[in-house]
Amino acid sequence: PPVLSDLGYVPPDGGWGWAVVFGASISIGFAFTFPKAFTIYFKEIQAFFNISYSQIAWTTSIMCATTYGGGPISSILVNRYGSRPVVMFGGLLCGVGMISAAFCTSILQLYICVGFITGFGLALNLQPSVIIIGKYFLKRRPIANGLAMAGSPVMLCTLAPLNQFLFDNFGWRGSFLILGAILLNCCVAGALFRPIGPGTAPVKTQVTEEGKDALKGKITEDGPMENKTEEEGEKDCFEKVNQYLDFSLFKHRGFLIYLIGNVLMFLGFFAPIVFLAPYAKHTGIDEYSAAFLLSILAIVDMVARPTTGIVANSRWVRPRIQYFFSFAIAFNGACHLLCPLASSYTGLIVYSSFFGLAFGMVCAMLFETLMDLVGAARFTSAVGLVTIAECCTILLGPPIGGILIDTFGDYKYMFIKCGAVMVLAGTFLFIMNYYNYRMLAKEEKERKAKEEDPKSVRTENEGKKNWNKDSIQDGPELEPLKEKREGLKKEMNGT
Protein backbone atom coordinates (compact mmCIF):
# COMPACT_ATOMS: atom_id res chain seq x y z
CA PRO A 1 0.00 0.00 0.00
CA PRO A 2 1.15 3.61 -0.50
CA VAL A 3 2.97 5.24 2.38
CA LEU A 4 0.56 7.64 4.09
CA SER A 5 0.72 9.61 7.32
CA ASP A 6 -2.00 9.11 9.94
CA LEU A 7 -0.65 11.82 12.23
CA GLY A 8 -2.62 14.72 10.76
CA TYR A 9 0.52 16.30 9.28
CA VAL A 10 3.36 15.38 6.91
CA PRO A 11 6.59 14.49 8.81
CA PRO A 12 9.61 16.53 7.62
CA ASP A 13 11.77 13.43 6.91
CA GLY A 14 14.94 15.30 7.77
CA GLY A 15 16.09 18.63 9.17
CA TRP A 16 15.93 18.55 12.96
CA GLY A 17 14.85 14.92 12.65
CA TRP A 18 18.49 13.86 12.25
CA ALA A 19 19.29 15.47 15.61
CA VAL A 20 16.39 13.48 17.04
CA VAL A 21 17.88 10.29 15.53
CA PHE A 22 21.21 11.09 17.20
CA GLY A 23 19.53 11.57 20.59
CA ALA A 24 17.48 8.39 20.09
CA SER A 25 20.63 6.37 19.31
CA ILE A 26 22.10 7.45 22.68
CA SER A 27 18.96 6.58 24.67
CA ILE A 28 18.36 3.29 22.85
CA GLY A 29 22.06 2.38 23.17
CA PHE A 30 21.99 2.81 26.95
CA ALA A 31 18.67 0.94 27.29
CA PHE A 32 19.82 -2.15 25.37
CA THR A 33 23.51 -2.19 26.33
CA PHE A 34 23.75 -1.18 29.97
CA PRO A 35 22.39 -4.47 31.43
CA LYS A 36 24.98 -6.43 29.39
CA ALA A 37 27.92 -4.13 30.26
CA PHE A 38 26.98 -4.19 33.95
CA THR A 39 28.01 -7.87 34.22
CA ILE A 40 31.70 -6.83 34.41
CA TYR A 41 31.19 -5.92 38.10
CA PHE A 42 29.55 -9.23 39.05
CA LYS A 43 32.61 -11.02 40.40
CA GLU A 44 33.73 -8.19 42.69
CA ILE A 45 30.20 -7.52 44.01
CA GLN A 46 29.68 -11.24 44.57
CA ALA A 47 32.85 -11.43 46.68
CA PHE A 48 32.04 -8.20 48.57
CA PHE A 49 28.54 -9.29 49.66
CA ASN A 50 29.49 -12.99 49.92
CA ILE A 51 26.57 -14.15 47.74
CA SER A 52 26.07 -16.78 45.05
CA TYR A 53 26.28 -16.15 41.31
CA SER A 54 22.53 -16.65 40.88
CA GLN A 55 21.83 -13.95 43.49
CA ILE A 56 23.99 -11.36 41.73
CA ALA A 57 22.57 -12.43 38.34
CA TRP A 58 19.12 -11.38 39.53
CA THR A 59 20.32 -7.76 39.33
CA THR A 60 20.39 -7.72 35.53
CA SER A 61 17.28 -9.91 35.32
CA ILE A 62 15.31 -7.41 37.41
CA MET A 63 16.76 -4.53 35.36
CA CYS A 64 15.73 -6.14 32.03
CA ALA A 65 12.30 -7.10 33.36
CA THR A 66 11.67 -3.56 34.62
CA THR A 67 12.90 -2.05 31.34
CA TYR A 68 10.47 -4.11 29.27
CA GLY A 69 7.71 -4.36 31.87
CA GLY A 70 7.62 -0.57 32.24
CA GLY A 71 6.64 -0.24 28.58
CA PRO A 72 2.92 0.47 29.15
CA ILE A 73 3.68 3.07 31.84
CA SER A 74 6.16 4.72 29.49
CA SER A 75 3.58 4.78 26.68
CA ILE A 76 0.95 6.31 28.95
CA LEU A 77 3.38 9.04 30.04
CA VAL A 78 4.36 9.77 26.42
CA ASN A 79 0.68 10.07 25.43
CA ARG A 80 0.11 12.41 28.35
CA TYR A 81 3.24 14.59 28.37
CA GLY A 82 5.20 13.91 25.16
CA SER A 83 8.56 12.24 24.54
CA ARG A 84 10.95 15.01 25.67
CA PRO A 85 10.04 15.27 29.40
CA VAL A 86 9.65 11.49 29.75
CA VAL A 87 13.16 10.78 28.41
CA MET A 88 14.70 13.55 30.52
CA PHE A 89 12.99 12.19 33.64
CA GLY A 90 14.15 8.66 32.72
CA GLY A 91 17.76 9.87 32.42
CA LEU A 92 17.47 11.49 35.85
CA LEU A 93 16.17 8.21 37.33
CA CYS A 94 19.07 6.27 35.76
CA GLY A 95 21.61 8.67 37.25
CA VAL A 96 19.99 8.66 40.69
CA GLY A 97 19.72 4.84 40.68
CA MET A 98 23.40 4.26 39.89
CA ILE A 99 24.67 6.96 42.27
CA SER A 100 22.52 5.47 45.05
CA ALA A 101 23.86 1.99 44.21
CA ALA A 102 27.39 3.21 45.05
CA PHE A 103 26.33 3.48 48.72
CA CYS A 104 24.47 0.13 48.97
CA THR A 105 25.36 -2.16 51.89
CA SER A 106 23.27 -5.21 50.91
CA ILE A 107 22.25 -7.07 47.77
CA LEU A 108 18.58 -6.17 48.40
CA GLN A 109 19.44 -2.46 48.21
CA LEU A 110 21.31 -3.18 44.96
CA TYR A 111 18.19 -4.87 43.54
CA ILE A 112 16.17 -1.74 44.31
CA CYS A 113 18.69 0.86 43.09
CA VAL A 114 20.08 -0.89 40.01
CA GLY A 115 17.23 -3.28 39.20
CA PHE A 116 14.12 -1.19 39.72
CA ILE A 117 15.14 2.49 39.70
CA THR A 118 17.74 2.31 36.92
CA GLY A 119 15.68 -0.29 35.02
CA PHE A 120 12.59 1.93 35.08
CA GLY A 121 14.70 4.88 33.98
CA LEU A 122 15.90 2.85 30.97
CA ALA A 123 12.26 1.98 30.18
CA LEU A 124 11.47 5.70 30.07
CA ASN A 125 14.37 6.10 27.62
CA LEU A 126 13.59 3.22 25.25
CA GLN A 127 9.96 3.64 24.18
CA PRO A 128 9.86 7.45 23.71
CA SER A 129 13.07 7.32 21.66
CA VAL A 130 11.51 4.83 19.25
CA ILE A 131 8.18 6.67 19.18
CA ILE A 132 9.60 10.12 18.35
CA ILE A 133 11.29 8.80 15.18
CA GLY A 134 7.88 7.91 13.71
CA LYS A 135 6.77 11.50 14.19
CA TYR A 136 9.72 13.03 12.36
CA PHE A 137 10.09 10.47 9.55
CA LEU A 138 7.78 8.78 7.06
CA LYS A 139 9.47 8.11 3.71
CA ARG A 140 12.92 7.69 5.30
CA ARG A 141 11.66 6.01 8.47
CA PRO A 142 13.40 2.62 7.95
CA ILE A 143 16.75 4.42 7.52
CA ALA A 144 16.14 6.54 10.62
CA ASN A 145 15.17 3.47 12.67
CA GLY A 146 18.25 1.59 11.46
CA LEU A 147 20.56 4.46 12.43
CA ALA A 148 18.91 4.87 15.84
CA MET A 149 19.10 1.14 16.60
CA ALA A 150 22.80 1.18 15.61
CA GLY A 151 23.40 3.03 18.89
CA SER A 152 23.20 -0.31 20.72
CA PRO A 153 26.30 -2.02 19.19
CA VAL A 154 28.21 1.29 19.21
CA MET A 155 27.47 1.70 22.91
CA LEU A 156 28.39 -1.94 23.59
CA CYS A 157 31.83 -1.47 22.00
CA THR A 158 32.27 1.70 24.10
CA LEU A 159 30.80 0.75 27.48
CA ALA A 160 32.45 -2.68 27.84
CA PRO A 161 36.07 -1.42 27.80
CA LEU A 162 35.07 1.74 29.69
CA ASN A 163 33.57 -0.30 32.52
CA GLN A 164 36.71 -2.42 32.72
CA PHE A 165 38.87 0.72 32.88
CA LEU A 166 36.68 2.30 35.58
CA PHE A 167 36.68 -0.90 37.62
CA ASP A 168 40.48 -1.25 37.49
CA ASN A 169 41.02 2.35 38.62
CA PHE A 170 38.10 3.19 40.93
CA GLY A 171 36.54 -0.09 42.09
CA TRP A 172 32.87 -0.86 41.74
CA ARG A 173 31.61 1.92 44.05
CA GLY A 174 33.58 4.65 42.29
CA SER A 175 32.57 3.20 38.92
CA PHE A 176 28.89 3.39 39.86
CA LEU A 177 29.25 7.09 40.71
CA ILE A 178 30.87 7.81 37.34
CA LEU A 179 28.32 5.67 35.48
CA GLY A 180 25.51 7.58 37.18
CA ALA A 181 26.98 10.82 35.82
CA ILE A 182 27.36 9.28 32.34
CA LEU A 183 23.74 8.10 32.33
CA LEU A 184 22.62 11.69 32.97
CA ASN A 185 23.53 12.29 29.31
CA CYS A 186 20.16 10.70 28.54
CA CYS A 187 18.67 14.00 29.74
CA VAL A 188 20.70 15.79 27.06
CA ALA A 189 19.50 13.27 24.45
CA GLY A 190 15.90 13.84 25.57
CA ALA A 191 16.32 17.60 25.23
CA LEU A 192 16.82 17.05 21.47
CA PHE A 193 13.31 15.56 21.16
CA ARG A 194 11.57 18.76 20.09
CA PRO A 195 7.75 18.27 19.99
CA ILE A 196 6.24 18.16 16.52
CA GLY A 197 2.64 18.16 15.31
CA PRO A 198 0.04 19.96 13.16
CA GLY A 199 0.63 23.52 14.41
CA THR A 200 0.04 23.71 18.13
CA ALA A 201 -2.97 21.39 18.23
CA PRO A 202 -2.30 17.91 19.55
CA VAL A 203 -3.13 14.92 17.39
CA LYS A 204 -6.01 12.90 18.80
CA THR A 205 -7.22 9.50 17.71
CA GLN A 206 -10.74 8.39 18.48
CA VAL A 207 -11.12 4.85 19.76
CA THR A 208 -14.58 3.37 19.23
CA GLU A 209 -15.94 0.17 20.70
CA GLU A 210 -18.54 -2.12 19.10
CA GLY A 211 -22.10 -1.24 20.04
CA LYS A 212 -21.13 2.18 21.43
CA ASP A 213 -21.35 5.55 19.74
CA ALA A 214 -19.77 7.49 22.59
CA LEU A 215 -16.17 8.55 22.47
CA LYS A 216 -14.06 6.11 24.45
CA GLY A 217 -10.75 7.93 24.60
CA LYS A 218 -8.30 10.30 23.07
CA ILE A 219 -4.63 9.73 22.40
CA THR A 220 -2.50 12.85 22.46
CA GLU A 221 0.64 12.31 20.39
CA ASP A 222 2.75 15.30 21.44
CA GLY A 223 2.57 17.65 24.36
CA PRO A 224 0.18 17.70 27.33
CA MET A 225 -3.49 16.91 26.86
CA GLU A 226 -5.77 19.92 26.80
CA ASN A 227 -9.47 20.73 26.51
CA LYS A 228 -10.64 17.95 28.82
CA THR A 229 -14.31 17.17 28.42
CA GLU A 230 -16.81 17.47 31.23
CA GLU A 231 -17.68 13.78 30.84
CA GLU A 232 -14.20 12.67 31.99
CA GLY A 233 -15.32 12.45 35.58
CA GLU A 234 -18.09 10.03 34.62
CA LYS A 235 -15.77 7.56 32.90
CA ASP A 236 -14.91 4.35 34.63
CA CYS A 237 -11.37 3.25 35.44
CA PHE A 238 -10.90 1.23 32.24
CA GLU A 239 -11.92 4.15 30.05
CA LYS A 240 -9.46 6.44 31.81
CA VAL A 241 -6.63 3.98 31.16
CA ASN A 242 -7.82 3.50 27.58
CA GLN A 243 -7.59 7.25 27.16
CA TYR A 244 -3.80 6.93 27.08
CA LEU A 245 -3.25 3.23 26.19
CA ASP A 246 -5.20 1.97 23.18
CA PHE A 247 -6.47 -1.51 24.11
CA SER A 248 -8.50 -1.69 20.89
CA LEU A 249 -5.21 -2.81 19.28
CA PHE A 250 -6.06 -6.31 20.49
CA LYS A 251 -8.76 -6.28 17.77
CA HIS A 252 -6.13 -5.36 15.15
CA ARG A 253 -5.25 -8.47 13.12
CA GLY A 254 -1.77 -7.30 12.06
CA PHE A 255 -0.86 -6.30 15.63
CA LEU A 256 -1.86 -9.71 17.02
CA ILE A 257 0.20 -11.51 14.35
CA TYR A 258 3.24 -9.36 15.18
CA LEU A 259 2.76 -9.87 18.93
CA ILE A 260 2.52 -13.68 18.76
CA GLY A 261 5.49 -13.97 16.39
CA ASN A 262 7.72 -11.72 18.49
CA VAL A 263 6.85 -13.36 21.81
CA LEU A 264 7.82 -16.70 20.26
CA MET A 265 10.99 -15.26 18.69
CA PHE A 266 12.36 -13.85 21.97
CA LEU A 267 12.53 -17.36 23.46
CA GLY A 268 15.64 -17.87 21.32
CA PHE A 269 16.81 -14.35 20.54
CA PHE A 270 19.16 -13.39 23.42
CA ALA A 271 20.33 -16.79 24.73
CA PRO A 272 22.98 -17.37 21.97
CA ILE A 273 24.66 -14.04 22.84
CA VAL A 274 24.77 -14.96 26.52
CA PHE A 275 26.30 -18.41 25.87
CA LEU A 276 28.56 -17.66 22.87
CA ALA A 277 31.72 -16.95 24.90
CA PRO A 278 31.15 -19.86 27.36
CA TYR A 279 30.60 -22.19 24.38
CA ALA A 280 33.90 -21.09 22.85
CA LYS A 281 35.69 -21.75 26.17
CA HIS A 282 33.96 -25.14 26.38
CA THR A 283 35.51 -26.11 23.04
CA GLY A 284 39.00 -25.29 24.39
CA ILE A 285 39.46 -21.71 23.17
CA ASP A 286 41.18 -19.24 25.53
CA GLU A 287 39.10 -16.52 27.19
CA TYR A 288 40.57 -13.58 25.22
CA SER A 289 39.81 -15.25 21.89
CA ALA A 290 36.34 -16.13 23.16
CA ALA A 291 35.71 -12.50 24.12
CA PHE A 292 36.91 -11.42 20.67
CA LEU A 293 33.98 -13.34 19.14
CA LEU A 294 31.59 -10.91 20.82
CA SER A 295 33.60 -8.00 19.43
CA ILE A 296 33.27 -9.44 15.91
CA LEU A 297 29.54 -9.85 16.45
CA ALA A 298 29.21 -6.24 17.67
CA ILE A 299 31.20 -4.78 14.75
CA VAL A 300 29.16 -6.66 12.12
CA ASP A 301 25.97 -5.73 13.98
CA MET A 302 27.04 -2.07 13.95
CA VAL A 303 27.31 -2.09 10.14
CA ALA A 304 24.28 -4.33 9.55
CA ARG A 305 21.67 -2.12 11.27
CA PRO A 306 21.98 1.08 9.17
CA THR A 307 22.58 -1.01 6.03
CA THR A 308 19.37 -2.93 6.69
CA GLY A 309 17.55 0.37 7.14
CA ILE A 310 18.76 1.56 3.73
CA VAL A 311 17.73 -1.72 2.06
CA ALA A 312 14.35 -1.75 3.82
CA ASN A 313 13.70 1.82 2.62
CA SER A 314 14.12 0.87 -1.06
CA ARG A 315 11.04 0.81 -3.28
CA TRP A 316 11.39 -2.94 -3.79
CA VAL A 317 11.54 -3.92 -0.11
CA ARG A 318 9.47 -1.20 1.65
CA PRO A 319 6.05 -2.53 0.47
CA ARG A 320 7.14 -6.06 1.52
CA ILE A 321 8.98 -5.17 4.72
CA GLN A 322 6.96 -7.70 6.77
CA TYR A 323 8.28 -10.53 4.58
CA PHE A 324 11.81 -9.14 4.86
CA PHE A 325 11.47 -9.13 8.67
CA SER A 326 10.23 -12.74 8.60
CA PHE A 327 13.22 -13.74 6.49
CA ALA A 328 15.64 -12.02 8.91
CA ILE A 329 14.22 -13.98 11.87
CA ALA A 330 14.37 -17.30 10.00
CA PHE A 331 17.93 -16.50 8.82
CA ASN A 332 18.90 -15.83 12.45
CA GLY A 333 17.50 -19.22 13.45
CA ALA A 334 19.31 -20.99 10.61
CA CYS A 335 22.63 -19.57 11.88
CA HIS A 336 21.99 -21.08 15.33
CA LEU A 337 21.04 -24.45 13.86
CA LEU A 338 24.37 -24.57 11.98
CA CYS A 339 26.44 -23.36 14.95
CA PRO A 340 27.14 -26.87 16.39
CA LEU A 341 28.94 -27.69 13.12
CA ALA A 342 31.53 -24.97 13.90
CA SER A 343 34.03 -26.97 15.96
CA SER A 344 37.12 -24.83 15.23
CA TYR A 345 37.86 -21.21 16.08
CA THR A 346 37.62 -20.24 12.39
CA GLY A 347 34.17 -21.78 12.24
CA LEU A 348 33.08 -19.79 15.30
CA ILE A 349 34.36 -16.56 13.68
CA VAL A 350 32.24 -17.32 10.60
CA TYR A 351 29.23 -18.08 12.85
CA SER A 352 29.74 -14.84 14.82
CA SER A 353 29.87 -12.83 11.59
CA PHE A 354 26.63 -14.28 10.21
CA PHE A 355 25.01 -14.08 13.65
CA GLY A 356 25.94 -10.37 13.89
CA LEU A 357 24.45 -9.77 10.43
CA ALA A 358 21.19 -11.59 11.23
CA PHE A 359 20.94 -10.02 14.69
CA GLY A 360 21.42 -6.52 13.24
CA MET A 361 18.78 -7.15 10.55
CA VAL A 362 16.18 -8.19 13.11
CA CYS A 363 16.92 -5.30 15.49
CA ALA A 364 16.86 -2.70 12.69
CA MET A 365 13.32 -3.72 11.67
CA LEU A 366 11.95 -4.70 15.07
CA PHE A 367 9.98 -1.48 15.63
CA GLU A 368 9.72 -0.37 12.00
CA THR A 369 7.52 -3.36 11.11
CA LEU A 370 5.22 -2.67 14.07
CA MET A 371 4.86 0.97 12.99
CA ASP A 372 4.16 -0.21 9.44
CA LEU A 373 1.27 -2.37 10.71
CA VAL A 374 -0.49 -0.04 13.18
CA GLY A 375 0.56 3.41 11.94
CA ALA A 376 2.51 6.12 13.73
CA ALA A 377 -0.55 7.48 15.57
CA ARG A 378 -1.22 4.20 17.41
CA PHE A 379 2.42 3.14 17.68
CA THR A 380 2.82 4.75 21.11
CA SER A 381 0.31 2.37 22.66
CA ALA A 382 1.39 -0.58 20.52
CA VAL A 383 5.05 -0.51 21.61
CA GLY A 384 4.03 -0.42 25.28
CA LEU A 385 1.70 -3.41 24.94
CA VAL A 386 4.30 -5.38 22.95
CA THR A 387 7.15 -4.86 25.42
CA ILE A 388 5.11 -6.00 28.42
CA ALA A 389 4.23 -9.22 26.53
CA GLU A 390 7.86 -9.77 25.48
CA CYS A 391 9.11 -9.29 29.03
CA CYS A 392 8.30 -12.87 30.09
CA THR A 393 9.96 -14.63 27.16
CA ILE A 394 13.04 -12.39 27.36
CA LEU A 395 13.50 -13.54 30.96
CA LEU A 396 12.74 -17.20 30.22
CA GLY A 397 15.00 -17.60 27.14
CA PRO A 398 18.47 -17.72 28.79
CA PRO A 399 17.37 -19.82 31.84
CA ILE A 400 15.78 -22.44 29.53
CA GLY A 401 19.04 -22.54 27.56
CA GLY A 402 20.96 -22.98 30.82
CA ILE A 403 18.71 -25.86 31.85
CA LEU A 404 19.41 -27.62 28.53
CA ILE A 405 23.16 -27.16 29.02
CA ASP A 406 23.00 -28.52 32.58
CA THR A 407 20.83 -31.47 31.54
CA PHE A 408 22.79 -32.67 28.49
CA GLY A 409 26.23 -31.29 29.37
CA ASP A 410 26.57 -29.85 25.86
CA TYR A 411 25.88 -26.41 24.37
CA LYS A 412 24.69 -27.66 20.98
CA TYR A 413 21.19 -28.48 22.25
CA MET A 414 20.75 -24.91 23.45
CA PHE A 415 21.71 -23.54 19.99
CA ILE A 416 19.40 -26.07 18.28
CA LYS A 417 16.51 -25.03 20.53
CA CYS A 418 17.07 -21.33 19.82
CA GLY A 419 17.43 -21.94 16.09
CA ALA A 420 14.29 -24.08 15.87
CA VAL A 421 12.21 -21.54 17.80
CA MET A 422 13.36 -18.64 15.61
CA VAL A 423 12.82 -20.52 12.34
CA LEU A 424 9.32 -21.39 13.58
CA ALA A 425 8.67 -17.72 14.48
CA GLY A 426 9.90 -16.51 11.09
CA THR A 427 7.77 -19.06 9.24
CA PHE A 428 4.72 -18.16 11.33
CA LEU A 429 5.14 -14.44 10.60
CA PHE A 430 5.66 -15.06 6.88
CA ILE A 431 2.52 -17.20 6.50
CA MET A 432 0.31 -15.04 8.71
CA ASN A 433 1.43 -11.78 7.09
CA TYR A 434 0.62 -13.29 3.69
CA TYR A 435 -2.84 -14.16 5.04
CA ASN A 436 -3.20 -10.67 6.51
CA TYR A 437 -2.32 -8.96 3.21
CA ARG A 438 -4.78 -11.20 1.33
CA MET A 439 -7.55 -10.34 3.79
CA LEU A 440 -6.77 -6.61 3.60
CA ALA A 441 -6.91 -6.73 -0.21
CA LYS A 442 -10.22 -8.60 -0.06
CA GLU A 443 -11.71 -6.10 2.41
CA GLU A 444 -10.52 -3.17 0.30
CA LYS A 445 -12.06 -4.73 -2.82
CA GLU A 446 -15.39 -5.21 -1.02
CA ARG A 447 -15.31 -1.62 0.22
CA LYS A 448 -14.72 -0.24 -3.28
CA ALA A 449 -17.47 -2.44 -4.72
CA LYS A 450 -19.85 -1.14 -2.09
CA GLU A 451 -18.92 2.46 -2.85
CA GLU A 452 -19.34 1.96 -6.61
CA ASP A 453 -22.77 0.30 -6.22
CA PRO A 454 -25.32 3.09 -7.00
CA LYS A 455 -28.06 1.41 -4.97
CA SER A 456 -25.99 1.29 -1.79
CA VAL A 457 -24.82 4.87 -2.35
CA ARG A 458 -28.43 6.06 -2.84
CA THR A 459 -29.58 4.24 0.28
CA GLU A 460 -26.70 5.70 2.25
CA ASN A 461 -27.46 9.23 1.00
CA GLU A 462 -31.15 8.84 1.84
CA GLY A 463 -30.20 7.69 5.32
CA LYS A 464 -28.01 10.75 5.78
CA LYS A 465 -30.81 13.05 4.59
CA ASN A 466 -33.30 11.44 6.96
CA TRP A 467 -30.82 11.73 9.82
CA ASN A 468 -30.19 15.40 9.04
CA LYS A 469 -33.92 16.01 8.74
CA ASP A 470 -34.66 14.39 12.09
CA SER A 471 -31.77 16.18 13.77
CA ILE A 472 -32.99 19.54 12.45
CA GLN A 473 -36.57 18.92 13.47
CA ASP A 474 -35.55 17.79 16.91
CA GLY A 475 -33.55 20.93 17.58
CA PRO A 476 -34.39 22.80 20.79
CA GLU A 477 -35.14 26.05 18.93
CA LEU A 478 -37.97 24.33 16.97
CA GLU A 479 -39.58 22.65 19.98
CA PRO A 480 -42.82 24.80 19.79
CA LEU A 481 -43.30 23.86 16.10
CA LYS A 482 -42.75 20.22 16.97
CA GLU A 483 -45.46 20.34 19.68
CA LYS A 484 -47.87 22.06 17.30
CA ARG A 485 -47.24 19.41 14.62
CA GLU A 486 -47.88 16.59 17.12
CA GLY A 487 -51.19 18.27 18.12
CA LEU A 488 -52.33 18.45 14.51
CA LYS A 489 -51.51 14.76 14.03
CA LYS A 490 -53.62 13.81 17.04
CA GLU A 491 -56.58 15.86 15.79
CA MET A 492 -56.34 14.23 12.36
CA ASN A 493 -56.21 10.78 13.89
CA GLY A 494 -59.26 11.58 16.02
CA THR A 495 -61.23 12.81 12.93
Strand content: under 5%
| Biggest pleated-sheet summary | 2 strands, antiparallel
| H/E topology pattern | HHHHHHHHHEEHHHHHHHHHH
Q: Report, as a whole number of angstroms, the end-to-end distance.
A: 64 Å
Any idea what the CATH architecture of the largest domain is?
A: Up-down Bundle
Structural class: mainly alpha
CATH class of the largest domain: Mainly Alpha
How large, in whole angstroms, is the Cα Rg? Answer: 27 Å
Mean pLDDT: 77
Count of domains:
2
Low-pLDDT segments: 199-232, 471-478
Please characterize this protein's 3D structure:
By secondary structure, the protein is mainly α. It has two domains: 9-197, Growth Hormone, Chain: A (Up-down Bundle); 247-454, MFS general substrate transporter like domains (Growth Hormone, Chain: A, Up-down Bundle). 75% of the residues lie in helices and 1% in strands. The protein contains 19 helices and two strands. A two-stranded antiparallel ribbon has the order 1-2. Helix 1 packs antiparallel against helix 6. It is globular, with a radius of gyration of 27 Å.
